[in-house]
Amino acid sequence: MLNTNQNCNIGFVGLGVMGKSLALNLADHGYRVAGFDLDTHKIQDVLNTEAAERIDPSAEARIIGCSDMKEMLSHLVKPRVIVVLVPAGKPVDAVCQSLIEAGLEADDIVVDCGNSQWTDTIRREAEYKEKFKFFGTAVSGGEVGARFGPSLMPGGDANSWKYLQPMWEAVAAKVDKNGKPIESNTPGKPVTEGEPCTAYLGPNGAGHYVKMVHNGIEYADMQLICEAYHLLRSLLGYEPEEIGKLFEKWNQGVLNSYLVEISADILQQYDQKTGAPLVDMILDSAGQKGTGRWTSISATQMGVPAGIISESVYARALSTLTGERELAAGKLTADVESGEIAAEDVEKAIEEALYCAKICAYAQGFQIMRAAQKEYDWTFNFSDIAKIWRGGCIIRASFLQKIADAFDENHELENLLLSDYFADAMAKKQTGLRKAVVLAAQSGIPTPSFFSALAYFDGYRSDVLPANLLQAQRDYFGAHTYERVDAEPGQKFHTFWQEEGRPERKA
Ligand code: 6PG
């Protein structure tokens, strides 16, 4: 294992699924990697895979295994770049501590590529400043993405970015000039042309924050597809395979995305054991690691309306109440209307509903980031963010190009819904969303994210909301004061609601 040459471009601590895949990706692009993991089997596994995949077996190994962090550091060119891919939270700090003890220097760069909470990245960047440069890079795309081209969301010390940029641009997913992903999943034959799905997003926690919002949108995107499936199945009695085929068709149009594509594939698979559609054999209780919840919490803390994302988190939570739901199903009935519905019309309505709700969910995600940049002193380039999500990541979708175009046209765009393209799309297709929501309500089918999307759209486009009554209520019971429509903004008024009696209308 030992090799004293200082000729490796990058070190890895953590060679689990993601670490291994990213290390192999870097090796494919010609970088030499020094890897370490507490589990020696994982080191051996990555070395074996690299050897097996090497196109020229006589060529020198591009990945070397190290028996400790000190040895790993001894192989790296300076300033040393070390990727840390360990579970988020305490393990990241434990690795940083061990790296310091192993001889890290002030110019060395430690890159946390895990799903860390952005506040931890902000803290770590400040805390380790004197010892080394702590840099965040969030990775999306799962195992295959990491191996053949992920979407990379870097944030940290701007000076360190110049060392990372060539490597990150090499290994990131690529898109063509129309924003379409260029994919190759062949080891040793990486994609080298096209625009890389990575861009420097800002200091300290900026990259991890953007990834968190990516995941919040991912939750919404997934939930909306599930609601479309639920409606098609319950309203029209379609079998999963039929819905899968319909999704395949939708995937050719404006809904084209990785998540619609995989859902189409999932729905057409059958269980080998029972012969039933595989989806029917999977327990309807959703897991979550927390990034969608963090997005919802962050939005709520900043006062950003992000109901679709939050509803998607709640929908997962509700799904886990399997025992209670069973009990309730026997006790609570729905008083529903049934009537003749034309399948073709319903299909069209649900397709439009999915598109409109998806636009609203992305609008909310970008609103969250707009607020966060003020909160954390970042300056996001929203067009760049949309562009680096066009390939590699879980929410990759062709309409991200339209989002990038909208922000390119107007960098100060307050809300995606205000761009001509998306305002027009909502004008043309909102009937479908309204119809889907009505059908769901009439039939007792839970579609919380569709409902929330419509409420958001209608709320956002309302120049008058009943918040005037709400302000009056607050003033009535708590003397919280209110502003008047005919006074200067910021000027506060209070009414002694009970003491003053109920003044009558002036004649
Ligand atoms: C990605 C995914 C990835 C992971 C999620 C799953 O972008 O590659 O988002 O990060 O699949 O963390 O999250 P949940 O377990 O919360 O669904």
From TrEMBL:
Q: What is its EC number?
A: 1.1.1.44
- Annotated 6-phosphogluconate dehydrogenase C-terminal domain ranges read 207-498
Enumerate the residues binding substrate.
Answer: 115, 140-142, 214-215, 219, 289, 316, 474, 480
Molecular function per GO: NADP binding; phosphogluconate dehydrogenase (decarboxylating) activity
Q: In which pathway does it act?
A: Carbohydrate degradation; pentose phosphate pathway; D-ribulose 5-phosphate from D-glucose 6-phosphate (oxidative stage): step 3/3
The catalytic residues are: 211 (proton acceptor), 218 (proton donor)
Assembly mode: Homodimer.
- According to its UniProt record, which protein family does this protein belong to? Belongs to the 6-phosphogluconate dehydrogenase family.
Protein name in the entry: 6-phosphogluconate dehydrogenase, decarboxylating
- To which species is this protein native? Marinomonas hwangdonensis
